Every structure is written in C-alpha cells, then in structure tokens.
Amino acid sequence: MRLNLVAVPVLLALVLTACNKKQKVQTIGEGSSPTNVGSAASSSSSPRGTAAPTTTPTGPARVAVDQTAQVIVYGYHRFVNQVRRPDTEITPQMFEQQMQELKNRGITVIGMQDFLAWKRGEKNIPPRCAIITFDDGWKSQYDVAWSIMKKFGYPFTLFIYTEGVRGGHFGGGEAITWEQLAEMRDAGIDIQAHSETHQDLRKPYDKVAKKRLSPPEYEQWLQNEVGRCKETLEQRLGIKVNCFAVPYGFYNQHVKDVATHAGYEAMFTVYGQPITYRSPMDSLGRYLIEGNKPKVFVDAISMIAGSGSGGAPVAEVGSSNIASKPADGETIRNALPLITANISAFGAIDPGSVTMRVSGLGVVPASFDPKTNTVSYQVTKKLRDKCSVILEAKSGGKKVEAHWTFGIEEAGAPPPAASASASASATPKK
Fold first, then answer.
1. In angstroms, rounded to a whole number, what is the distance separating the alpha carbons of residues 303 and 328?
2. C-beta pairs of 93-98 under 8 Å, 24+ apart in sequence
3. Distance (Å, whole) CA 375 – CA 390
4. Are 183 and 139 in contact (CB under 8 A)?
C-alpha cells in the first residue's frame, strides 16, 4: 500500500514533464526557430488572441550587384551539316567552335532567369557574360544543339512561336514537338515566347487568314500574337513565361505596350548590342548568328572584352532622352542616313571624349557641337538590315553611354509585310 502511495507522485511528475516537452515541441513547429525556444515557449503561454512576435516576410533580398557587368545575347536558329540558308542556318561544328571560344575568352554563359534577377538587383553575375538563345523551335535544337550545350554545361533559352511547334499551322517535320519541349523543360531549359505565327507585328496583315485586318481586327490579332502565345506555352508546359522575342526584330511603341500589358518582364530584339544594368527592358538587343557571318560573333565578344569587375562605373542614358535620329526601333529606307543625337542628358560633357560606334563600322568620325550638344555622323558606307549605335562621353570624370538601334529597308525592297511573309514561309514551315 505504501509503495502505491509513493508511486502516484512519481507518475504525476513524469506526466507533467512529458506534457511540458510536448508543448515546447509544438511551439517550435508553429513558426519559431529552434534558436528562439525561450521566446517561443513564452509566446505559447500568452492568450490566444495575442499575436506572437514574428519576422515580417520580405521580398527577394537585394544584393550589392556589379552594375558595371555587361551581357551579350546570341540568337541561333537551325543546325545543319550543309548550309543552304545562311541567314538562319549554321553547322554544328561552327556552333561548337563558338561555344568553345566563349570559354577560351573567359565569357561566362548564364541563364536567362539569372540575368533577369541581376537586372532586378537580386543577384550578382560575373563581369562579362553571354546568354544563348534559340529561335522558332527547330527539331535540330533538340537533336543537335542541346547535346553541344550539355558538353559545355551551358544554360540556354528557347524562344518558341506556338504555331511552329509540330502539329501547328507551320509545324512540319523539322519542327520541335511538345513532348520534346516538355523533356527540355524537365531538364531545366528556359522556354519563352516568340509570338503565335511569327509575323511582322507592326503590320495589320494576317498571313494565316491571308487578309488585311481592320483596326479592331488588328488589335485582337496582336493580342493573340503577343499574349495568347504566352498563355499557350504556360498552359501546355506548366511554366512561367516572362520574356518575349519580337519576330524579325520589327516592333514599335504599341507592340512594346501590348507586350508589357501581357505581363512580359523583358522584350528582345535582333539589334545586337551589349546589355548593361540600366539597359531598358523593352528593347534588349541580341546578336543573331548567321552561317556566313562569323565575324558578328567575334565582334560581339570584342564589345565587352575590355570590361571587368571593379572597372569605372558607366552611367547609361535611355535612348528616349537623346532625341536620336533615326530613332530607336525605327525602320528607315535610306541605307546612308545622317545619324544624330542630342546628348544634353549626359550633363557637362568633355568635348574631346565624345565617341560614336556604329555596328559593322566601329568607331566613326562623328562631329560634336558643344553649343547644341549634338553629335552627328553622315554614313558613307551602306548599312544593311539593322544598325546599333553606341554614344560614349565623359561627364564629371565619369563615363556616360547611350545605345539605340534602328532598321534599314532600302527603297525598292518588298514591303515589310510581304518580305516577312515570304521569309516566314521559307523558315518556320518546318
């Protein structure tokens, strides 16, 4: 009997100890970290209506990013052993040599989402980077290019136009399939949008319906080309699409506005230029690589070859602030234009530091009028297709830059809608 009376208090003590431990364990699991057990236990004893002290969730941490880093973006199409259409084709051998060249030159190939995180100020990137993109959705991107990219361990992005996938209006035997896209998605490949039917988005003409569009019809068609293709990719592949590559590089402010409204974070053109931390997100230039123009690849590297971490900061002035002529994104019919820009937005300019670079020409003998802050250069060698201009100067001892691009369509050439349609039927009909 005496033994039973002694056992009762012992059992009660064990039960109370177990309950206390259970209470502590539950409190840690309800949101407190193990390092704050004391405060967690304290909060658990407070009335249920009193909120326990918690850390307020915040957005992605902002890091000290290198704002002097530069990025070049390359665009490829089809990979073939025998090049017949050099504007969109390249041999696997040449492509592999170019990927090796990036490695040899110390250029880091980064993924698209890492690039966007850097632009948002959320993540750092190396001082000299490249992004590799493949357009349209050719089967050879799956069969050929992917294995080469695996060899180097390089990430890349596919810009897909949805009616060019196998089974679509333009998706023939050389087109990639939805199953192949899903396999690449599962392997971590970034997949983004390139419109529905790959047309000149500025022109009110539907090459599928083969009709000129009225203003209301054009607006609906443009919404489909820019927005519905995003929805299709997201629904078919279960992904988030936040980048849009403009077909042929043809765009205007209205196309930009529609893309922004559709939810794209970045918009890419084909007017190659180095991308900086402050480059506008609605006109990011890519260097399209053609089988018979290997110099374009090398020239792009040379544009960022001198940059390095810790270099002098470069302030970039948006193209909309320099009143450039031809304007950014404009298509002109004169292959020998007078290029001008007012760089008052640069600040107090050192006249001897003003430099103009023109793609395909390099540094040109531009003139600078300090009274009007106007830089001008009369082109003497015919420009082709598209042209990028970089203006540099020193202001207050710091380097300031402005970049812009424009297209050239010589007089007598077919109208853009016709040429785009012809090119599209020859290229995306896979």
1. 20
2. 94/291, 94/294, 95/145, 95/148, 96/148, 96/151, 98/74, 98/289, 98/294, 98/297
3. 11
4. no
Please report the pLDDT score of residue 244 as a whole number.
Answer: 98
Note the pTM of the prediction, 2 decimals: 0.64
Report the DSSP pairing between strands 314-316 and 362-364: unpaired
Question: For residues 329 and 285, what is the distance between their CA atoms, to the nearest angstrom?
Answer: 11
- Kindly provide the b/e burial profile for residues 56-89, where b requires at least 16 CB atoms within 10 angstroms of the residue's own CB: eeeeeeeeebbebbbbbbbbbbbbbeebeeeebb
List of long-range contacts for 114-121, beta carbons under 8 Å, 24+ apart: 114/155, 115/71, 116/242, 116/243, 116/265, 116/266, 117/60, 118/65, 118/69, 118/277, 119/266, 119/277, 119/281, 120/60, 121/62, 121/63, 121/65
With contact defined as beta carbons under 8 Å apart, do 102 and 304 qualify? no
**Which residues are CB-contacts of 119 (< 8 A; sequence separation ≥ 6)?**
266, 277, 281
Local mean pLDDT, 10-residue blocks, the chain (430 residues) = 46 48 36 34 38 49 74 97 94 97 96 96 94 97 98 98 93 93 97 97 93 96 96 96 95 94 96 90 93 90 65 62 89 94 91 89 91 95 85 85 84 44 44
Report CA-CA distances (Å) from 125 to 29, 64, 115: 36, 11, 8
Helix (H) or strand (E) holding 185: helix 178-186
Give CA–CA dist 377/368, Å, rounded. Answer: 9
